[in-house]
Amino acid sequence: MLDKLKKEVYEANMLLPKYNLITFTWGNVSGIDREKNLVVIKPSGVEYDVLKADDMVVVDLDGNVVEGKLNPSSDTATHVELYKAFPEISGVVHTHSPWAVSFAQAGLDIPAAGTTHGDYFYGSIPTTRQMKREEIETAYEKNTGSVIIETFRNRQIDPAQVPGVLVNDHGPFTWGTSAVNAVHNAVVLEQISEMTYHTLQLNPHGITMDQALLDKHYLRKHGKNAYYGQKKETK
Amino acid sequence: MLDKLKKEVYEANMLLPKYNLITFTWGNVSGIDREKNLVVIKPSGVEYDVLKADDMVVVDLDGNVVEGKLNPSSDTATHVELYKAFPEISGVVHTHSPWAVSFAQAGLDIPAAGTTHGDYFYGSIPTTRQMKREEIETAYEKNTGSVIIETFRNRQIDPAQVPGVLVNDHGPFTWGTSAVNAVHNAVVLEQISEMTYHTLQLNPHGITMDQALLDKHYLRKHGKNAYYGQKKETK
Amino acid sequence: MLDKLKKEVYEANMLLPKYNLITFTWGNVSGIDREKNLVVIKPSGVEYDVLKADDMVVVDLDGNVVEGKLNPSSDTATHVELYKAFPEISGVVHTHSPWAVSFAQAGLDIPAAGTTHGDYFYGSIPTTRQMKREEIETAYEKNTGSVIIETFRNRQIDPAQVPGVLVNDHGPFTWGTSAVNAVHNAVVLEQISEMTYHTLQLNPHGITMDQALLDKHYLRKHGKNAYYGQKKETK
Amino acid sequence: MLDKLKKEVYEANMLLPKYNLITFTWGNVSGIDREKNLVVIKPSGVEYDVLKADDMVVVDLDGNVVEGKLNPSSDTATHVELYKAFPEISGVVHTHSPWAVSFAQAGLDIPAAGTTHGDYFYGSIPTTRQMKREEIETAYEKNTGSVIIETFRNRQIDPAQVPGVLVNDHGPFTWGTSAVNAVHNAVVLEQISEMTYHTLQLNPHGITMDQALLDKHYLRKHGKNAYYGQKKETK
């Protein structure tokens, strides 16, 4: 069942240690089959060096396991919420990558400080509000998804143009057009977190990129007038 | 004698270079056989690339060598004190991992700034008071254990729930349900030291994780209602 | 056509991942044949692990492709501008190396803080002014070159003595006597960015290297009285 | 000639890339035969991956080449000055390791902030005064040695107990009982520079290690009452 997607999601999970985004099992990647409305996700707490494509768990959009011998990631309900609210995405990643977590713990957005940011994220990467006691105590992982969705709706951010978020006091979720693309965005998020941290230390008032430069860099890689790479719309 | 425990302690010691927790021989791991009241510990000052399981030294709870050709770690008396005071632990680790040492040298606790911390440590990781001249000059390593124990008792911290400490002006000790689990906690301590350092630089007043979130994350991985991983009580 | 230069430019491009200067495809190296006035440059958006010498693209000094199946780097027009304005250079590198980007995003020059800097860069490494809206919207990559050239002319900096620049809110370009030498300067720029960042954090008023020390270090490696290395004029 | 010492100095040089202390050729190690008063040192500007034991250059205590096809390190005169002034040392290392350079460029001593420091350096690691114009312009490398020696004499620091220094606006020199031991001290210096940097950022007034703790740690590894390791006086 969904063997091709399982292989793709497995391979995307294995990119997390490759790109130094995780310690132990602190991360998970999923992908969705939009026709069948089924999500393939990493099992919970399994070490990467023993993980196999066949260990991937299939869940439906209520979060129920449809196939798989292992428990799905404890964050499955967050992934499912994101797939339901953001129909344009087909992959989701959660990590505790250290630079992004540093901003999440500080409760700060990552401002668009330069063109590296603009090449992938079309504006500030938001940090959610802190979750309320009742949101934490009941259906915590589902509510983590809800607070992300609320952030994008209230702040009128397009999740296709800003493919990531920091959950306050927790860490990053990213997404994309596929599981691998979502990992790609997780790598970029970590890298720009590191650079913008140092920029802020050098010059706390120095984040002043012009909107025209952000437009230029985002749009030279995305949309119908993109011209970066070997064909239109590469990412 | 204790061949299984020696192998386990040896393998736990070899995780220190694997996880980049040590420079040269600046670390040691021990494990205890609680039935025989014997501790197995790394020999002092032996390089990791020549260390063998058979080099592990067996000491009793007075710190006397019971078996072994080599001198035990110079920190043996600290390990022994911890085993005597904290009956729930079966492994102890000491390193000079750089981010944790930075907090120890600054004399600062590591506050619980986010869920990565909460997944493993149920509250602030304390830094001991500075040791007194007389504690340093006589039975220094034993007194290092005593000041750790005093910290947990005076501040009413449960060592099973906060499996680590920073010794002031020195560095981290962690412990756990086994030698390997104690190393696991040493890795986590180093990682959260790094992230919380950066959080404090971004926002010195930004450490505001809600107790409910700390409860949620700690208890979803620990205790009878844990649901992370593939079975109850994995760590 | 230009097989030797293609091989050299290919090998120089492959040094970028070797020296950890790039993430994904965020970098490009070119070299010029000054007799034929032809530039060899990396194709746009091709991953380093599949890149071949034969993929290199040949362009003329108007930026037109003369040979090659792939699109040249999207930054080609910047490289070409630099070759036209700075006749003494034969290689150009662009990366998003994180420490240099941190200064670029902060809009700050990298001051000459010590002898490591002085061994390669004879004075501050300038950051350009921010580009104007009209410069961004039309012929952006060409204008990126123009603003670099303006910086060196207005501030009377000799590009042979300061072989690199930070483009404001973007990142570093370096150059040199060959493609490999330009990569060498990119490595140095990243390293001194890191060290000078930390120097500024330790002591914001502590950048006080004497001109005589800068002269000594630069001139012991460069020019007719150089005495570093095994022959005159090694770099 | 001096084949054993050449091999030892060669191997000590090869530890510099192993321990990530150098970029390109920015470092050199020497050793001395105290009976013959001859120094063996790395040749200038030779890449580590082509360096051979046989490339090592032999110089006398006037800095004249006694044997060797290549030019000796451009810093040879500094090494020679140190050997003449500090008869207890038999190895010298110079690097541009980035954390130590950060302090050197800031013109700050590295204070003894914790036991890692105290295990190897018995007190603050001094930074020299800035060199004067005339010291730089004539016999620069020899005068670099002189300003180091002046620092230790004026501040009454014992070079056997504090086996390293930062040359202002330049970088670290370390020394030791052998070439390998001097490299060992260079590794430690870099590590404690990193940790103490972060300590100072966390708590600028937090460097308060008690002299008794410094005494304890230094003397448990050095001198006649040392008890660390497998025999007396290991380092």
From TrEMBL, chains A, B, C, D:
It is an enzyme of class 5 (isomerase). GO terms for biological process: L-arabinose catabolic process. It catalyses: L-ribulose 5-phosphate = D-xylulose 5-phosphate. The lineage of its organism: Bacteria, Bacillati, Bacillota, Bacilli, Lactobacillales. Residues 7-197 form the Class II aldolase/adducin N-terminal domain. It holds the Pfam family Aldolase_II. It comes from Jeotgalibaca porci. Its cofactor is Zn(2+). Involved in the degradation of L-arabinose. Catalyzes the interconversion of L-ribulose 5-phosphate (LRu5P) and D-xylulose 5-phosphate (D-Xu5P) via a retroaldol/aldol mechanism (carbon-carbon bond cleavage analogous to a class II aldolase reaction). GO terms for molecular function: aldehyde-lyase activity; L-ribulose-phosphate 4-epimerase activity; zinc ion binding. GO terms for cellular component: cytosol. Its EC number is 5.1.3.4. InterPro entries: Aldolase_class_II_sugar_metab, Aldolase_II/adducin_N, Aldolase_II/adducin_N_sf, AraD. This is L-ribulose-5-phosphate 4-epimerase. Keywords: Arabinose catabolism, Carbohydrate metabolism, Isomerase, Metal-binding, Zinc. Pathway: Carbohydrate degradation; L-arabinose degradation via L-ribulose; D-xylulose 5-phosphate from L-arabinose (bacterial route): step 3/3. Belongs to the aldolase class II family. AraD/FucA subfamily.
